[in-house]
Write a structure and sequence with these properties.
Elements: E1 2-3, H1 14-21, H2 34-47, E2 51-55, H3 58-69, E3 74-79, H4 83-86, H5 91-96, E4 99-103, H6 111-117, E5 127-134, H7 147-159, E6 163-168, H8 171-178, H9 182-186, E7 191-195, E8 206-210, H10 212-224, H11 233-245, H12 250-266, E9 278-282, H13 287-296, E10 299-300, E11 302-305, E12 308-312, H14 322-341
Parallel strand pairs: 1-10, 3-4, 3-5, 5-6, 6-7
Antiparallel strand pairs: 2-8, 7-8, 9-12, 11-12
Helix pairs in contact: 1-11, 2-11, 3-10, 6-7, 12-14, 13-14
Length: 344
Amino acid sequence: MIDLRSDTVTRPTAAMREAMARAEVGDDVYGEDPTVARLEKLTAEITGKAAALFVPSGTMGNQIALLCHTQRGDEVIIGEGAHCAFYESGAGAAWSGVQFEIAGRGGLFGPDELKEVIKPPHYYHPRPRVVALENTHNRAGGRVFPQRDVLAIAEVARAHGLVMHLDGARVWNAAVASGLSIAELCAPFETASVCYSKGLGAPVGSAICGDAETIVRARRFRKMLGGGMRQIGVLAAGALHALEHHRARLAEDHAAARVIGAAIREAGASVPEVETNIVQVDLPVAADELVAAARARGVLVGASGARRVRVVTHLDLPAARVAEAAAALADATREVVTRKATPA
């Protein structure tokens, strides 16, 4: 099977496994794991932040950021379908006690749309505290948040005393697609979470990045949430290898996604412009129909809505199989779209 459900399905490469097997380790709760220290230092340098903290997952990274920036009853402004509200099991309500306000539609928004949802400072309103952007935006089809909009949003946020947080799980992809550095993309934000186990192909791990004081607080929250780990250099070595060796090849994933997106579009489905490694497919039939038809042809994809399917390219899709995947998905699309068009 060709598995295109997510870029989280990748397996460690042989070189990554070797790096993990040879990793020097120590007790990270005591701050004594040298491989973790190397990973955190490099991540901080790449993101342009003073410090970074290795965490088990992107969900934990986002939730630690909210804990660092908010108090119970505060409000976090997000784009529609943001991961921190849509895919994190209600953690913002459970741990931080925050509520979410949506700016704009479709995941991305601009400064004027932000202004529309910032509540005035009356005691009977929740206190707006954080603007959290997702770049790239998963449910928007891997779209890159335009940097001009990010900078304009940051200006509005500062004027209203709001903190900026970046859910940068796939910021590596955003950098490749935009031509900007990771540090440039992270610069407008007080904190940024980045993920090693999506496009970069590590088996596990994310990091939260920010100023030194924030990361000291983040370390305590990580422990509170059960993320205080011990000899985790084995995991950090996989992430470190991914960071050092797998960023440069992300353009290959983007190119593969464009090929697959074009084939599905030609077969009769609606496919917005493919910007990174996610292909968003909108259908006139139930998404499960295309999922089943694709599986029958040896390709795994996932439903991301009642009539929407997500296809994600990644490290484990060899260039030699891109055409095969595209043809299979086009054939599956043609089948389900034709079925819809044919009268019973």
